[in-house]
Records
---
Amino acid sequence: MTPYLFNQIWNLPKLAYLNLEIYNISDAIFSQLKTISLTLESLCIQNDIPHPLRDIADLYQKAPNLRVLSMNINLKNEYEKFPVVVTSIMTSKLDFCGELRALHKLFQNLPNLCHLTIDMQDHYLTGHEWKQITIDHLPKLKQLRFKMFIAPLYDTIIEEEIDELLNTFRTQFWLDEHHWYVRCDWNPIAGSGTFGYLYTLPYAFRLFTGIAKGLRRPKWTCPDDEKYCLFNRVHNLDCMES
């Protein structure tokens, strides 16, 4: 998409919801916008182009009333500055890769975020770490949905690792205060390719990467697996057999 065409769309006088499924959009497209949209409330960018922190800052300056944001973000530079506090965004769905310190910086600047859905491809956080993020940076958070890739797991103590991790999500903060539950699927067969996925329940993403039943060992923190282990949002399935 050319900057000219994007500016034409941005100038639509009643533009409120914008869903872009375009794969040739520049990662600096927001800095090229020439006008401010006061009507845009929801923006979803569905492509694999990762956007740095500065794109979110540029976007907020061009859409100060934006309430919903869905995009792929790449926060490789933990020292990148984020000069604005984005007070309007209340709902965000992020595909995240990069440095955890940069992710903390992003959360620090989203103080009114109420609903967060995040797919973390590079790192995972324990229940204690998520709790601290919520207390320190996201005091208004009501709904947290995530999927985190866990690798590598130590060959000889895989189940002990998983139990220790899940126990950080079995605290009063998770179970009693918020009723947030998680599940972990992992390959119990020791080896160099051992990995797992940790995600909130019910499952909140269109893509589910499953581990074949014979190679999968699931554990969860919810009291009733039939009630919470729901996958009705899944549209695409990847199955790992080995």
---
Amino acid sequence: LQKSLNETFGADKYSRARKEVLTYMFSRPMQMALYFCTGMVKDETLFRHYALNVPFYTHFTSPIRRYADIVVHRLLSASLGISSPIRMEKEDIQRQAEHCNDRKMASKRVQELSADLFFCIFVRVRA
């Protein structure tokens, strides 16, 4: 897919804009990644990362960024024996994961609505 996209972008004065538009259009239909407690899911194929083509995957960034990252860091640390085991039931972890998913989807929606609003303002001002 990436090779085909690179060929489509071209090398003219519109190639950068074409790249941004096509990348956006191709990435939107992909299923959004969701946090979940692996102890609550029987089907291990759901642990797979589609784009990276790896069987097991977890996502986190700096633990100061998001609550979900802090939870992942703590769970990984405990599972590797670096820190004490987490005293939480898998149902509680799943509830936290669902809450993080809800917040992530709400944030994404607000970002999209904000972009739409500013585009409308831009068009109105330029019209």
---
Amino acid sequence: MRSPQFAIYHPMDDDFRRMAVLMRQYSDWPLGLADAAVVATAERLKTVEVATVDRRHFEHIKPVHVSHFMLYPQSAR
């Protein structure tokens, strides 16, 4: 993250529709409601950076606005 501050955004009506699409699209994982909400909201805000302690889903999701998310904290690979 470029700033020590975090912003919290709540899903909007269109985000809930996108969440349902994402959960169907990635149903073989399965992608849960919370992760789908983060993806849908990040897409709406056109943000690339996502903070998460659970990278499993975010490493494989293809957002509509960028090729991939920049996940934080960064992996120690």
---
Amino acid sequence: MKYLSIDIESTGLDEDCLLIEFAAIPFDTCMPLEKSLEHTLAFHSFIQCPSFELLRPKLNPWVAEHNESLIRKAASCNITLATFGNNFKQYLQSSPIKNYFLIKNENDQNKDQDKIVLFGKSLNAIDLPFLRRDLGSDFMNTFFLHKVMDLTAFAFGLIDLNLLPEGVHSSSELMKHFKMGEVSHTALDDAKNTAIIYMRLLDYIKTQKLLHSSHITLPTTGL
């Protein structure tokens, strides 16, 4: 299956915090890991924000310490929120993206097959609320399916199946589990790494042969 892995960076998690970086990269779970990410179709943008000095009094201490350079990059760019929205729309309407996802008519909101499935970590808690606020519900409903694949939720399921250790569900813990280093907290790297983690989890499940009917028998009645 094909997904669009996304990630955002912001000035915090509160409702009034600002979106300052966004990235997206398509990937295909039917491909081997080393070929799954379509790097040539990646999208990345900073979004202009006030200066770090102006924002600092209201910043969460963690954000002020770890995201100062990111905020300064966003503050120095000339890409407004409106420009970002237009650029992202053009990206989604481009022939390479439409061909990759086999989209025929993105303007028909009733056709699920012409919508992209978003992938990410903690999508419903973080990324989607910011994107719906800043891009609008019409934008999101036009291009994206309302159902998403969330790495965090997937990890919770694997913990329930005893396939992941208890507590290994955040991106940082999953990165450590797969010895992939630290979370970069830059949008494009995080979008890539979450997709890679998902592919590795799928490969692990396949090697355990948990998807074979000889190992798992699903009930057909009483559901």
